[in-house]
Amino acid sequence: TPDFIVKTTFDGQVILSLNKGDLPELVVSEAYTELLNNASALSKRDKEALPILKKDVESAKGLIDALHQRQVTLEKIMKAIIRRQYKFFQDGDEADLQPMKLEDIARDTGLDISTVSRVTNEKYAQTRWGIFTLRFFFSARYEKDGEEMATRKIKLALKEIIEHEDKQHPLTDIRLEEEMKKRGFPIARRTIVKYREQMNIPKASLRRE
Predict the structure, then answer these.
(1) Which of 14, 35, 78, 157 is 20 to 30 A from 111 in CA distance terms?
(2) What are the angstrom distances between the C-alpha of 50 and each of 36, 53, 104?
(3) What are the CA-CA distances from residue 70 to residues 15, 73, 138, 193 (Å)?
(4) Which of 81, 103, 137 is the last residue of a domain?
(5) What is the mean pLDDT of each successive set of 10 residues along the chain, which is 209 residues long?
């Protein structure tokens, strides 16, 4: 079950809501609260039970407050992710995912990076384009000559070039480097090799059909 519902309207607005499922809203029983507020009118026997009742009510309030704070934290993190990856939520194109690290979301939200890490590891978001773990929206940075790009975008471009190559004459890593430069990705051959291997794509001689 996804933890977030992210809706995208046809005019490009992105709307976030927490998926609470069928869980009812938790509240402290009014009857118990009323008993505590009118303690002076209780019988001696009932008054003897007040300390236990008070402790239970305080525990319940503490639990409700903790759950509320958890929801606030979840919403804060997801809103920060949406702000940074707004274009993706509009069109569902992975190439539009921007470079983003845990540190970025921690800085945006004022939360500890360990909290951001835990939440993004465990939670899922349902979008118009499918259900994704929150970690899906993160991508490392690649910087070349002062230009910053998401490594995911580079990998997608590299994968596309290889998918459309002549299978009888597959492109060597040197040729892939040249093709990537033509597409605006001036990355080194060793980086080509690294990303190719990360995507489990064999070298040219093993791709020949």
Answers:
(1) 14
(2) 7, 5, 49
(3) 20, 5, 22, 42
(4) 137
(5) 92 90 67 65 63 74 82 94 95 88 95 94 92 91 67 91 94 95 90 93 93
